[in-house]
Amino acid sequence: MKQVAIILLNWNGWRDTLVCLASLEKLDYSxxxxxxxxxxxxxxxxxxxxxxxxxxxxxxxxxNLGFGGGCNVGIVKAMEExxxxxxxxxxxxxxxxxxxxxxxxxxxxxxxxxxAGSVLYYMDAPGKVQAWGGGHVNFWxxxxxxxxxxVPENRLHYLTGASLLLRREALEQxxxxxxxxxMYWEDTxxxxxxxxxxxxxxxAEGSCIWHKESASLGKKSPLLIMYFNASAILFFSKxxxxxxxxxxxxxxGRMIKSLVMGNWKRAIYxxxxxxxxxxxxxxKRNK
Length: 287
What we know:
41% of the residues lie in helices and 25% in strands. It is an alpha/beta fold and 287 residues long. The protein folds into two domains: 4-211, Spore Coat Polysaccharide Biosynthesis Protein SpsA, Chain A (Alpha-Beta Complex); 222-285. The strands form two sheets. Strands 1, 2, 3, 4, 5, 6, 7, 11 and 12 form a nine-stranded mixed β-sheet that branches. The relative contact order is 0.14. The model has no long low-confidence stretch (mean pLDDT 96).
């Protein structure tokens, strides 16, 4: 049986993390090890997690490395310890007992599968699908959309990082998360890099996850909006044939939508995030 490392990233979210860890105890897959990464929490997360689960390894980062950077710390540790698969799981989730078994079975069915995802449901609306594994990117409109139903593999451009099983060999070939993405789009970027190297993406329909979504910062956090748009600019600069089209259409479209809804603050932070990323990219080119 393949050895799986389960990585949970925590940032000021110990309550969610403890609930998630409790649900993992019910998994029907036996060959796994849990590793919690604390991304420099400013609350008492470390104390609570250590007290509740003293036997689970806890790595404490000395600064917040973002989602990709924080996960990379865990991935490196898992690979050093010989894991065959790494399951990245958001700490604000709860899983069904068969969640991991279903993903491993799908991945083991074809050695070309580099990553497998789950069917995610909204925590506050348990019957509503949040993402059927992942989604697709529209390079004309500059946006990504999660699928809420099964789609052909050629429409599955990425798997969401909220529940993502990664094959060790695939990571060894394409590399880990690009840490230039502090938050958002890093899973999309990884999906594109995997596919460009010939790896397949798959969805384990028997792997059901309930996800709070944006629990750390809140769904309408200005910081979330800035990171999302900054990362969108970075993603399209890496993967679009004509980056200016999705950059311009995507950012302006999100700004117009916010203004129509009367949300000036959201529009401003959309522009701030995109502008900051463009400025950083320009400065690096001029060095």
